[in-house]
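Ticket #425: bound-state structure for aspartic acid.
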Amino acid sequence: MMQPAHQQVDHRQTKQILWAMILGLIVGLVAYYYHWTEFVSVLEPLGTMFIKLLKMLIVPLVLSSIYMSIVNLGSPEKLGSLGVKSIIYYFITTCIAVLIGLILVNIFKPGSGLDIASISNELSTEQVTKFQTSADTGLFKTIMSVLMDAVPANPFQSMAEMQILQIIVFSIFLGIASLVYRDDAKPMIGFMESLEKLSMTLIHWIMKIAPIGIFALMVAVISTAGLHALEALGKYMVVVVLGLTLHFFVLLAIASWRHKSSPWFVVKSVLPAMLTAFSTSSSASTLPVTMACVEDNLGVDRNTAQFVLPLGATINMDGTALYESVAVIFIGQAYGLDLSLGNQIIIFMTASLAAVGAAAIPGAGLVTMSIVLSAVGYPLDGIGLILAVDRLLDMFRTCVNVFGDAVGTVVVESYNSKTSPQQTS
Ligand code: ASP
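RESOLUTION: The complex was predicted; output attached.
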């Protein structure tokens, strides 16, 4: 049963963050048009510092939260049921996202009749190598390597390198062993419990400076993002953003239904996480904020949030999957390539899976997109067409990725408790 929210939505803080973002957007645009490069370079470190503070909490939080959720669940079976429900949710929502993307891009055809030469960006040698390596690896190997890489050879190295999936696996093992040998595990449970609580305290403190960090990040991104390409790629961007918006509403309807709350309550509750995702373009960096929003504002049971969110941040990326499907068809349309139903089905499947392989960091979706391109035999150079606006679109898709993770906790929790949760506000 979902617990009542022990802390109500902090409207003031959410409003501050929202205003900081809007202000950052405006100042960023002014800085772009008037070339305020110095001003931006003075402001940028504040944004970087905010991201670093968020990142600082990822490892302690993932380690302790997964561990504590297992210890509190009390049995590996319950964990299995949580895992299966999460994966079913991830799978279904990702498929819906890709489907929305494919339908829209086929209706609006943003790539047809484009003057490719005028918008194409030459890829750097480094980018070509990166995309080629990812394409050569192929989907099967990518998914296999996600699975293989999930097992840590050295958990301390995994923590040092912030390999979230590996940390999750290590915490699961440690948690199960602690269930079996509870007496031996007492000091470890105490340590993890305290690490988890202190990490959450720190995230609440860090969120107090979120408006400053988000303002600085917005100015930096908007003043350097490829605004010059807005016109040529306008239709493409509209299709991506429209698709993401539609998917957002699908998720919102699901959340509101399963949480038995008004959609507005759900949005208000998750807004700080979505705004952080928008300005950092990283689901991983946003994870601590998502955790706080889901537990404090939506009142989702701690054990569920602690398990479902870290996993979701790593493998559940609805926004990225939708984006990849639209982008690949867009490239196909621009180059006049084969857009047969067969190819679209391949794109549907590969885009859904390639998003699983994408890391929760800025620009990761662009790299795994090369797998989708090569699956249908499209040229990797096509990425050059959309490169200029990728950073901007990354903000939108990360926002949907994070919202999808948050909604996942509500859905899994509601099926776990069998009775639907009560509205908390
Ligand atoms: N930036 C996205 C995320 O962190 C991944 C992507 O590039 O699509 O969720």
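RESOLUTION NOTES: The pocket of aspartic acid is lined by residues 281-283, 317, 320, 358, 360-365, 394, 397-398, 401 (CB under 6 Å).
TICKET STATUS: resolved
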